[in-house]
## 1
Amino acid sequence: MRILVTGGAGFIGSALVRHLVGEIGAEVLNVDTLTYAGNLASLKSVESAPNYQFLRADICDRARMQEAFASFRPDIVMHLAAESHVDRSILGAADFIQTNIVGTFSLLDTARHYWDELDARRKSAFRFLHVSTDEVYGSLGDEGLFEETTPYDPSSPYSASKAASDHLAIAWHRTYGLPVVVSNCSNNYGPFHFPEKLIPLMILNALEGKPLPVYGNGANVRDWLYVEDHARALFTIASRGRPGEKYNVGGRNERRNIDVVHRICAILDGVYSDRGPHARLITNVTDRPGHDARYAIDASKLESELGWKAQETFETGIEKTVHWYLENEWWWRPLRENVYSGERLGVFKGR
Ligand code: NAD
Ligand code: TYD
């Protein structure tokens, strides 16, 4: 099985590539332009595997994408390349529009022309998995869950750009017959997570004795999924999902942000009892503009139709994650020193 992965040097992409190369034994071509969020160090464990290749290229570059399809000849495309951080999208949306919308268009259209020329057997087996987020559905109140049929209602430039790309992906199926499948997943966490997102930022700030900035009152709810569970779900959907369908991915792990931060502090208290309660570092800061109140996923379609189920609970996953950061300073120290040191992003006067 030949799988072209875009964004394989990112957080979820690298977990997926490690799973495909190491456990599934697929032939993998990882196409990634290496933005600030792309990091080949996350792929050290597979970089010299005979079934792994890397191509540094921008998905918006049609000519390079056509060459990659023509020479690698994928059976499956798993498209993860994106700008992914809500706060950066508030600061400036141009890269989000370019990569998430224009880049997805470029990839879909390249895939369509490549797919059109395949023989009948390969044509019917081909799949294009477009990897998306539950943030396209907008914000929930205290009750209810996102279902695949929930209307789109995105709040941030990031989620609006992902919503646009989801619509393009489904349109390429309805109009051209390209066998597209779309997945919408809740918040991921785990090893190799770039320390701009809530969980790794809180772990590293707490370790360094810095403030833990909780937006607003910390009552916003996210539904957390361990990244390796997501990687397994993505392969399940790409290999067995029905063309034209959407699948929600999540593990029923809703938590308020403030409770997540307290849990991280408690784990660190257990390791470094001499450093005092880490929760003293928690600081309430100005809220994020357009901050969605609650996300919660109903993944029963994926569970009943394709037999996937999350293996980690939040309690087991967060424990593993905190310990991974404690043991892998070689990975995060260069990022904190040279790429992003944790300053607040995405607030502006007037909000
Ligand atoms: P990430 O920011 O960690 O990684 C994105 C990767 O894409 C990076 O390696 C980057 O170099 C690459 N990339 C960016 N622009 C590119 C371009 N123009 N051409 C080629 N490569 C490019 O993101 P992530 O958290 O791993 O998310 C991966 C995908 O999953 C995204 O599509 C995101 O929307 C989606 N998603 C993320 C989450 C989450 O919690 N992080 C949840 C659900 C869905
Ligand atoms: P984040 O990790 O940015 O993911 P997303 O915005 O895609 O859900 O944020 C998760 C939640 O944590 C979100 O409600 C915003 C909040 N948050 C903070 O309170 N403080 C922070 O420093 C960050 C980065 C996020």
## 2
Amino acid sequence: MSEYIYVGEKFYSKENAKVSVLDKGYLYGDGVFEGIRFYNSKIFRFDEHMVRLYDSAKVIMLNIPLAYDEFKELIKEAVRRSGFVDGYLRVIVSRGEGDLGFDIRKCLNPCIVIIPAQLKLYPQESYDNGISLITVPTRRSLNESLSPRIKSLNYLNNIMAKIEATNHGFEEAIMLTNDGFVAECTADNIFHIKNGIIYTPATYHGALEGITRNLILEIAEKNKIKIVETSIVRYDLYTADEVFITGTAAEILPVINIDSRVIGNGKPGTMASKLIEEFRNITRNEGEPV
Ligand code: PMP
């Protein structure tokens, strides 16, 4: 964790970085966030993350109290102060303080928090040998109740699914929609490959429009590999040649087993490995300097 964390209107030392117990983010998970990577002092896909943050905020009618460019500048400042060359940023905008009710008109000062950190979610072995997934009972929230495309602070749905996974000894879970289509994992998007074609659940099935997901779409297009966003059921995953998951924190992880079915030959697939290589190339070279 960085020694400096931005809260409200200035940077604080880690020990003194605190938010009010009356903040709606704390009381109700009322707010939005982003998880962003920086590699070699360059913020990766910075605009994509910021656009998604502003879009999420717009949908929940939260006014981000900073102009887009000012906000970006502040985030760069946070990275510079951290002294980290490679790392992860948690950027949060919560509704701010009000009373104990739900009336957003009483919340006049949304609260910005920026936490630079270093993280390693999975051991190297998971990247080399692949991971196993389990489908869990908790369903992805309905588009019509809380759109899973909003990257909101309210992650209890995903946390429930993660609890179910870890209770059974798995680090990541597959979440289905109410009618049984594959949506995504608790913090990652999912892809499978069959006969040279890449498939991923369409966002209308509850998948977050992941920045890493978009990058896979881009890499596939560039390499003239057919990629399809569609309706996927577990049968498709069990019988796939390859499966992998993607996310800013996890990057790209091969999947070798789902619900006790061996995927492909039980080893990370060659196409996924090529995508991972290309992904690494792009993260090494791209990004907005801080
Ligand atoms: N799905 C969910 C539910 C997520 O929280 C995330 C981000 N951690 C992703 C997918 C992956 O999105 P991205 O590639 O933008 O990190």
## 3
Amino acid sequence: MNKDQLIKQAKAVLNNNLQNGFTIPRAKLYPFQWNWDSGFVSIGFANYDVDAAISEINSLFSGQWENGMIPHIIFHSENETTYFPNWDFWETTVNKGASQAPKTSGISQPPVLGFALEQLLQKNPNNEKILAFAKMIYPKMVHYHRFWYNYRDPNQEGLVFIYHPWESGRDNSPIWDDALDLIDLENANLPKYTRQDTKISDAKERPTSKQYDEYVYLLELGKRHQYDGKGIAEESEFLIQDSLINAVLIRSNEALINIGKRFNFDTKELEEWQTQSIKQYNAKLWSEKLNTYTGYDLRQAKQFPQWEIGGLTALFANIPTPERAEKMSNYLADLMANNYFIVPSFDVHHELYDSKRYWRGPIWPQMNWMIYHGLKQYNFQTEADFVRESLLSLVERFGFHEYFEAQRHLVNTTHGGYGGDNFSWTASSVIDLLLCP
Ligand code: DGY
């Protein structure tokens, strides 16, 4: 298939998922608006439909809380029944500053919106609509970052925490297993609930029932504390300074500092956060043993011991020294030499690697988009090209899936596209990788 055909198909996927001013990740499986999905979708739209890009971000901000949080789901429709947990299960009225129109979830997601806004501006440098939109939305974006630093950094370290795997975007990564095992499910007295995802997607490609119980447990814990970081930090078994969340926050800080300077906004607050965050990221999240960055479990006061994809996004955020970046890239060279598409989400040599199950192994398109740009910034052009080609060839072969098989021999013999199909961020990542290589 040639480039134009692929772009045409990708645009059709986005078009089908486009609702009234925003894009759902995928019909039925994710029938509302998701935070970081929309950030990536706006980057795709920025290449050919400025109005849709603006509207995508604006719709997200319609659900911003008074404390600055952009929730991970905005439930623009209250009648959609194919998703659990729906707006009523979240009961966000426990927090006085929560948005009620639209209804939302009570947690957040990787803060990609700052760098998404920068992409909109870079792709359309003289577009009056984008310039006016950027000036209007800028203070709200800074307020979103203020949420992270005010509510999720109790020791003022410059590294923010998450208390739910859904916030990480990498729901069932093996790196969470140990922290989740601290939860006493037997005495948790969980409310009754029915999963919807496994009615739509193959259960073997989704999180397990135990993991869903743990997700519901942490949701209830957040609710008990009015979704306020302070009480949560005291009680939650799951309390993580995540490599991806913090790298994305740092990358978006940088974007907002650049935009702020251009429009003469005061960027002092952002610059203070940024200096401390980069310093601490390098000091606390680098693992000599793994040769990459990794998350830190605040409850158990230890780094994660496994290689996992989040650390690679530090390249995208310009965090490592060239020496560290070189060490990080060796892992990719090893995968390339051993017949993998890159980059799988978890260490392929680890016993917990599962090539089909969601974040325990498969390749995710939006991660590849960030890693591609990170590798390019550090002049690892061969690896960057390999990342780009991996995604494009998988999409060409299997369609716009949610995630993909990484092992070449399995791709050649069995099914290689997993999770939902016709997926929005897969389409937008493809559009951008083809139009802005
Ligand atoms: C899901 O429902 O699978 C999402 O990842 C949580 O937002």
## 4
Amino acid sequence: MSDELITRAARDIVKAKKVVALTGAGMSVESDIAPFRGKGGIWEKYDPVEYAYIDTLRTNPAKTWILLSEMQREILKAQPNPGHLSLAELERLGFLSSIITQNVDGLHHEAGSKNIIEFHGNHRQAYCMECRKPIKSEEISLETLPPHCDCGGVLRPDVVFFGEAIPHEALTQSDQETRSCDVMLVVGTSAEVQPAASLPGVARSSGATIIEINIEPTSFTGYTSTYFIKGKSGEVLPKITDIIKNQSANLTS
Ligand code: OAD
């Protein structure tokens, strides 16, 4: 992890008029939630084509719920890590405008962040596919799969499956945030899933500085990203936040 780049990031954030963060699964790895891609990733164990498409949920919900129940158990016991807490603190201090997250684990909420755009929904909420009645995931028994609503319909989490559209509001809000920021922090995303992966390019074209934080380079690195900080989000973000808290007056000069 480069101290020079950490200080540069702190300075860019303090000087910016508007900072937005785009976060991905890497953000929650230090909260013991598996990412999708790479070693130990969910897609290593479950082929997304077989398990994660909306058609499978409709035609064979018991199969999709094998994956969903595993995710639900992991998410419901997870706690925010220092990376989530740092983003919440930056918002509280007035240095972060919003978080656009691809994560469905709700950990940015748990950490205290307020302005969150959940691009792929939230796994802590579910609803019945028949009567649409909402239910909290923690109230769903996973003993028999798929879980059912009182009305007999199958329950589903309020997340975006492959083959489904991104919620309209999330799409328009994130587009506005992306086009109006002058710094975008891109944290723990593999840059592989559209349309979320196009946001940093849009921000860059609108003149924003793109600060990428990841344990390994992605297709953004060296192209879309203005600079790349190699490291864990739970270590890099607290360092940046500490510098901002302790030296913000010096950083603007
Ligand atoms: P991925 O699992 O594709 O990528 C996770 C990224 O996090 C990788 O680039 C890792 O190198 C990085 N990473 C891992 N641990 C890290 C750490 N401690 N600190 C920083 N970075 C770390 O996750 P996403 O890019 O979020 O969509 O995936 C995007 C979408 O693909 C997900 O929202 C999901 C999935 O299919 C849907 O389910 C619709």
